[in-house]
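Here is one chain, start to finish.
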Amino acid sequence: MQNGQNTLSPETGNSARILIAEDHFDSREALRMLLAAFGFEVVEAINGREAVERALEAAPNLILMDVMMPEMDGFEAIRVLRDNEETREIPIIAVTALDGAHDVALNAGADDYVRKPVDIRILIGLVNGWLQREAL
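Its structure:
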C-alpha cells in the first residue's frame, strides 16, 4: 500500500530526523547518504535491539526498518516500538527483499513498506508522504 508521492526533489533545511535500522553497512550507508542529500538528519542502528534504543533516545520523525537483522529482527523491533507509548506513533517503513514479508511487517505494525533493491523515487515519496502526515 505504498502511500508516498513519487517526487524526487531535494529539500534544503529539512529538519526531520530519520532512523535507519539496517545491518548491512553498504545498504545503511547508501540510505544515509541519500537521506542526508535530501536534508534529513539521520540516526543509524545496526540491529533491531539498537533500533529500539535509538528510537527512544533520538525521537525520530520516521523509521526505515530492515526486517532481517541480527539480535532482534525488524518484525520484533516494530512490535516493541508499537508497544511503547513514546514510540508507537512514529511512522515505520519496513524495508525488505523477502517476498511476502511486507504483509508480515504491516501486521507487526509497520505503516508502509519498500522493496529492496530500493527505488529512490518510491522511497523519497514514501518518506515525504509519511512526514507530511505526521505534521498534520
